[in-house]
Amino acid sequence: MNVPSNLKYTKDHEWVLIEGDTATIGVTDFAQGELGDIVYVEVETVGDTMEKNEVFGTVEAVKTVSDLFLPLSGEIIEFNESLESEPEKVNSDAYGEGWMIKMKFSNPDEIAELLDDAAYKALIGG
Amino acid sequence: MKNTALSHIHEQLGAKMVPFAGYNMPVSYEGVNAEHETVRKNVGVFDVSHMGEFLITGPNALDLLQKVCSNDISKIVDGQAQYNCMPNETGGIVDDLIVYKFEDGKYLLVVNASNIDKDWEWISKHNTMGAEMRNLSDDYSLLAIQGPKAVEAMQSLTSEDLSAIKFYHFKVADFAGIAHVIISATGYTGSGGFEIYCKNSEVEQVWNKVMEAGKNFGIRPIGLAARDTLRLEMGFCLYGNDINDTTSPLEAGLGWITKFTKDFINSENLKKQKEEGVKRKLIGFELKERGIPRHDYEIVDKDGKNIGIVTSGTMAPSLNKGIGLGYVTTENSAPGSEIFIQIRNKPVAATVVKTPFYKG
Question: What is the ipTM of this complex?
């Protein structure tokens, strides 16, 4: 199972890339495999300031729908609009072109609450 | 949880396995969209051995089946199959099924896996005429070989002329080196093909030969996820979603298999319902905007008033839009009617359409 060591993770199977005061967020390779073919990523919260664990969007696979939870508190500044026409990028490149949002996080202390790659691997039994 | 005789093969093929109706079943191998396309364009093989099989025999077999089934089984000939449902006494449906007639006094019933015990008890309870019943569900396997290339791909496996088996007819013949296999021109995909019934001890050989014979035709194993998108594009009902113990066959659009030319369980009440007209109907709908309808989403009118509920929904891989089945009040059920599906508290416009959604 692909779990890059430069990323942080959540128990909801999202990954977080921290760069300065910005975080890029997507779903993990494990999550895309469990969801199956992804056909629609809906994020209508760009510009919103939200709390950690709030729902910022939804990912629809052919067989199932799943909420996306914000891993850190802060402002959502960008949605990966290429997913509008190519949602399958989440399946083919979950940690790269399949990224979902970028945010400015407001409370750096929350980063310590995220899982590292070893803890996430343990969570998914890998 | 039970395995089918092929569960180990699915695992070797890398299938994602899920519990379904008490069985460890393959839900997908390479991905639902690719598998869906394989069946629409080439040929795919499904292990659907979880389905139940009951053999009903003896001089009173027809009487029993005419009593428990809604369709008129006296109309089918030897070697013919018939889609059917079993109405309950309170206006709903016990199960939908296929009845195969081998000869007078010998019928095979193929029922949904999740209903095997319920159906067996139901039919046994109504077997006051002493028909002989055998539950073969644990001994028989079922492979569905579906797709436009199924006939061509499988012809080398049998001496029977596959192209001569008419839709909803079957032969008992040699297949993949096994004698007395049921080759049935039926399916749940709308893309043509066969369903093959054989013993558990024979099915691994059949599977391997089917994969080998289909190799040059692009055959792939197909999971339950694509089985669902394929059937939904055709508007076929799924028991537990679109029909259940509380939905009447007339509401569900199954009037064509509900024959009042004979008496059956609850036929008096259903006849009355037919004369008076149903209050709600199962309809197909397509979303006009982006979104995917799901089981249990609410259906509303333009004023936001509840008019029904979604029973099945998906993104249709062949059509690339959201489609679904659902019950709506009869006044909203005509093709062309505008309805709205509540998707996460947002009404999304949809149009009532005639099924099938996929027209080949």
Answer: 0.79
